[in-house]
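FAQ

Q: What does a record look like?
A: Structure on top, sequence underneath. For example:
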């Protein structure tokens, strides 16, 4: 394991799935982690696992759909570590249980909940982080910071048979658009902004797909042929740490598909 994240403070939203896997890998590579999420039990467990393995991690419980809570989380991270070098906006939900689906069936509650958790949280957390980064001098690496936003392959490669959740697609498409605009605006200020866009990954959020034999067969044989099925969350973590590290210091405004072949199926 490399130490390419040594001395970096990484703020991650979310405490399970790809967020947890990335936090654990970044810590193993030397980063100091500050993890924010609404679920206190999973957040504390994650922080304890990282510390037990010799890493540095603090957990802050907050509902990131609330602006004040997001601002307080960022302020606490700066108090604990003195700086934020990288932000990974991961927190999100499948809105199906709230009513997301094809647009003619999507309920207003499903639309609002899906947009709030998947898109609004990115805005509310990025805003105070950007203000912090802009207040910092340019570092020895020539940068003030890096932001990585969680996208999805469905934003640009829709699959109508099994993954027609239109509020979710709208949120992820908006993340692509705003991240590109952010990257252009903040490049002169030496702040990088990118998107990582996974395919179907084995996480708590994809439980419906993981228990459906028809979907599993479709993913394995038609959709993610390169991977031969659902992706492991650690594969996303590896790519995410690369995008958060100085190894990608010249990369901004990109949507990095890690989808096992979905986008070219």
């Amino acid at each position: 394991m490399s130490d390419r994240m040594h001395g970096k403070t990484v703020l991650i939203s979310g405490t399970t799935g790809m967020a947890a896997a990335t936090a654990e890998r970044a810590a193993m590579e030397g980063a100091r982690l500050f993890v924010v999420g609404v679920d206190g039990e999973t957040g504390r467990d994650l922080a304890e696992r990282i510390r037990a393995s010799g890493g540095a991690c603090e957990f802050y419980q907050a509902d990131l759909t609330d602006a004040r809570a997001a601002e307080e989380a960022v302020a606490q991270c700066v108090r604990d570590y003195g700086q934020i070098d990288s932000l990974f906006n991961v927190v999100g939900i499948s809105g199906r249980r709230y009513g997301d689906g094809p647009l003619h069936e999507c309920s207003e509650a499903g639309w609002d909940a899906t947009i709030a958790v998947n898109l609004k949280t990115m805005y509310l957390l990025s805003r105070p982080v950007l203000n912090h980064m802009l207040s910092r001098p340019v570092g020895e690496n020539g940068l003030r910071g890096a932001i990585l936003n969680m996208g999805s392959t469905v934003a640009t490669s829709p699959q109508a048979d099994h993954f027609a959740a239109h509020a979710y697609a709208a949120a992820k498409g908006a993340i692509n658009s705003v991240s590109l605009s952010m990257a252009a605006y903040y490049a002169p200020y030496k702040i990088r902004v990118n998107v990582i866009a996974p395919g179907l990954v084995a996480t708590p959020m994809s439980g419906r797909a993981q228990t459906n034999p028809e979907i599993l067969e479709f993913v394995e044989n038609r959709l993610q042929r390169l991977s031969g099925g659902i992706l492991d969350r650690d594969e996303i973590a590896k790519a995410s740490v690369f995008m958060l590290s100085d190894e990608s210091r010249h990369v901004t405004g990109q949507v990095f598909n890690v989808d096992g072949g979905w986008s070219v199926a």
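Q: Is there anything notable about this one?
A: The CA atoms of residues 92 and 118 lie 5 Å apart.
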